[in-house]
Amino acid sequence: MIENRRKWWILTVAAAGVLLSTVDASIVNIALPTISEYFKASVQTTAWVTISYLLVITTVLLIFGRLSDIYGQKLVFGGGLLIFTIGSALCAFSANITKLVVFRLIQGIGAAMIVSNTSAIVTNAFPGEQRGMALGTIGAVVSIGLMSGPPLGGLIIHYLGWHYIFLVNVPIGVMALILTARVLPELKADSSTRLFHPLDSLLWIVGITLLVLAFRGVGNMASVLLSFTACFSICIIVLAVFFKRQSTADSPLLKISFLKNDIFLFASIAGFFSYMAMIALTFMLPFLLENSYGKTPFDTGKILVVIPATTVFISPISGFLSDKLGQRPVASVGSLISTLAIASMFFAAPEYSSWGIIASLIVFGVGLGMFGSPNNSALMGSVDYKDRGAAGGILATVRNLGMVSGLGIISVIYNSGITRVSASPADAYFLAFKKALPIVAGFSFMALVFSALRKSVREAASEPDAKVARIE
Fold first, then answer.
1. What CATH number is associated with residue 30?
2. Cα–Cα distance for residue pair 460/257, rounded to 1 Å
């Protein structure tokens, strides 16, 4: 079993990797206008600097999670740090927008290798009674990364230039690589496991890419629905072939047994809907605050930061509570709080102070923090240690798919609501926000339903905690 001091160093290494990837995901968005002007590129072209990064992460997370089960988490995690660091340096010295997009793809591959292993590394390092607390710490680091990206990016761009938002990753990546080599254990779940068929990887990448593109339609409602129908239909066919092959494969990329595990399945679905609710709400709020409440972008940023700031504080506490009380009650109460916080925004009005919105966002952050750590702990603790790389890849994939799906759905609904309202801009954005709120609350409520349906890991008779929670 891992000694007490070393497991905290392992947590530090994992946290450093997560911090790199989350800061990079949020820091670049604030630089897009500057990059667009620097390269004389259109907004649509510049958007691919972000899209390419998120797309490649979403499509290859599962693949690298499974590879870590075969070749070792240390190799894949360390390789991801190396590729991410090299990609960051290449991005900083990009000669044109095309090269920047390509180098962001390289960065995304490295980030996927890092993120797909983080939950597995932490889960394997800590015993069952400390697992929720450790994963809660990682959840807090995720919030810190997302929260610090925009202000840090603004500061760097103002004083140094956009190139340095990528260069800042290099020294951090090098230090994380050194720690990885010294601290992470050499753990291979099963060295005799054969590599999965390359066709399975191709089917998965094509299917998930089509699913992501299905939610990125543009134009009027008719064209959006046509794009969604076409992409989603082909996606279903491709993924059906993928799952059919997985059910009979000797060395599957995705073990079908995961889908027969109620705890794993329901925790995944609950996480999917929770991330849909989070991204949908945070997408609409800047438009509401700036157009209906007259806030500046800077003021809006200060208001929205209360969500991750609250989550940073709550996540480790909820993880600790889930270790004592079980994951299901804590996560379910968190989902309930988030749902009520979203519903409370229905009573807001433009003539009222924005403090009502801020109070609701604080409560929403409490709910997110209470839900995330226990839900992740249940998901990761419900599988055997030798499958945790793949499970971590699925966990990260679910997170990205939830955000992409939620953003796609709510952007269509919200934009449709704005264009159909014949009123002043302030009233149009406010009414559209209220009409979309039931959808967002519905996402959060579905997270509550699936969270309440599953058991806590300690309640699952088929999963002895001592077996799955420790590295022997």
1. 1.20.1250.20
2. 15
